[in-house]
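We modelled each protein-ligand pair independently. The example shown here corresponds to the pyridoxal-5'-phosphate entry; the chain sequence is given first, followed by the ligand as SMILES.
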Amino acid sequence: MNYINTKDANEKVSFRQATINGLASNGGLYVPQNIPSLDEKWIDEIEKYTNHEIGFQVMRLLIGQESLNDIQLMKIVEETLAFDIPVVNLSDQINVLELFHGPTLAFKDVGARFMSRCLAEFSAEEEVNVLVATSGDTGSAVANGFFGVDGVKVTILFPKGKVSSFQEFQMSSLGNNIKAVEVDGTFDDCQSLVKRAFRDEALNKKYSLSSANSINVARLLPQALYYFLAFKQLKLSGRSEQIVISVPSGNFGNITAGLLAKKMGLPIKRFVAANNANDTFYQYIQTGNWETKPSVQTYSNAMDVGAPSNFDRILHFYDNDYDSIRQEISSFTFSDEETLEKMKSYHKQTQYILDPHGAVGLLALESHLREYENGLFLATAHPKKFESIVIKAIPDYSIQEVDLSDCQKTIIANDYEAFINQIGTP
Ligand SMILES: *Cc1c(COP(=O)(O)O)cnc(C)c1O
């Protein structure tokens, strides 16, 4: 399987090369040259297979035969899918896919674990420096996934005062090959610094840079797996007809992986992109115009993205056709007040505790769902990760103190030179 560049169809690289490069040098994103199809019978009988067998089958098709042999791939899949990913039935039509049972309590553990293990295989010859900009959860998952991986050093940029103490702890408590850098700026500033570094050829040569944001194919593609695992569980409980899936979205990596699963043959009727006040995609669905804007801070801060980077991949998968995109994806946007109110009322009604991201997902699902459909929303993080918000809705939610005293972070201004001086240093 070749991977092509969304901004230069003539550039073709292997999965291995796409993973090492992260972003293409002209700023394009890598996508599979063609989307492989799964055998219909295989999908029809999916409940016969173990999660690891499903993971192996799907990733083998996406990666192709090069880059990883069967033993390597199976080991990576087993280490990636090493925790529960349960579908919980909440009411007649509503189900939740709990993606927060991994080590850092957010869905990004799946992609980060897969990618780190791929890079460990691919970086045997030279040291790779992974750069990552985060609004919180990516940094945690990447730090945990890459901790102690030989031949890989990780530099994480996070915006000052905009991540929770729990997230800061997860990024800055490990040390070793993981460096946490706090930037006096916003998430968009962090992302701009990292993007500039990837365009800097001299820097790339010197440090062999790679990205662990969802722009990296090795992080993005394995996220398709949990849509298959969700389908298997819905099928086992007799709820697999007319499935509508709502995805709390920020950079749109998660939903892109779902769209990919659907294109591979998974019978999903429709997707719903749930936005908070950062509603660039929602506006696009309404008007057909793509207008990025600065991000604004909300309670669901992992979705505070004004210029979602995976949009180019969505455009590519749908041949730049607005109408076909609109047919497959609906979108809704919700304010912090609506989010909090939902967390409060849903807990009263069902005892289920939503984190603010999941709450936006549920609101969007309920706005869209028709009578005969089966709804699934993704709970992308554990409520514990966002407890300062959860407690506003559910006052008796118990809070754990986080001790940051043994953590190590470097503080820098929003400045390119200051940033690149941190790369490759212990
Ligand atoms: C990263 C994240 C999101 C957004 O996912 P994208 O793939 O960037 O759209 C949503 N919720 C949580 C909790 C996250 O960590």
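The chain has a mean pLDDT of 94.
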